[in-house]
Amino acid sequence: MDSLIERLNENGLIDEQGNIILEKYENGSYQAVDRETFTGFFGTTDYSYLQLAAADQGKGYTRFFDAWHELGIV
Amino acid sequence: MSITQITREFLGLSSDTKPTNVATGSKFIELDTKKVFIFDGSSWYLNPMPVMVTDSLPTGSNIIGKVGIDFGNNGVSIVGSLYKDLALAVEGINMAAGATVWGNYIDNVQWVRNMIIMYSSDQAFDIYLGRRNMSGNSDANGWITGLSAGANTRCMSTANNSNQTALLGYSARFGVKNTAAVANTYARAYIQLMGL
Fold first, then answer.
1. What is the ipTM of this complex?
2. Beta strands in A1-74 (DSSP E)
3. Given CA atoms B3, B9, B14, B15 in this order, what sign does their dihedral have?
4. Considering only CB atoms, which chain A residues are within 8 Å of B101?
């Protein structure tokens, strides 16, 4: 998890509260998830792209994982 | 006196006819009575907050719910900035389970004590409040949680210990959190806070 957070941070995807930024919008607002919630959903995975995507199960994170995959984060 | 529109707020006299072709949530301030009215989409209703510091205070403990005299404010709403309303509108956004859409900070809101919040959503949600002081330190807390789809208006008081998270710092912002265990598309989720 720490290495994932580090890579997200390097890509400007951690906000001032330490939340994971999932999606940014034109006016500066954004969608984010706190680390505790994220870990609760995906903490049993190894945070690889395939395992994250497989664990999504309708939670709506797949498109963000796709974007992270394109950026080389996962 | 003619009525002057300031964005979504109107100034006039109590004798003036209040406009009805305005956005829901608009505010009308009667300069002669100091009363504030809110447009709910069909009519204007008197802001139930005790904003008139020269008024005689109501008696009893249930007249104004959780706001004001119940918590030792002597019925006086501390005015921060009447024109610094805080709002967040989310339209057509698919939110992941447990995710929060954060709006932008608005500054100079340090003295809002009593307030009215209006909210509406087509999905269940929590309202989060983020604060940031002048040193840049920030926090974020669930403010009004467990909300079902629908519209509501609620009075909040930061004088109530249970609502201490509503105390605003120098900057404040709203967040809408998807409380469902699955992703949801929020066709609309609106929050507006009227600091008084």
1. 0.94
2. 20-24, 30-33
3. positive
4. 29-31
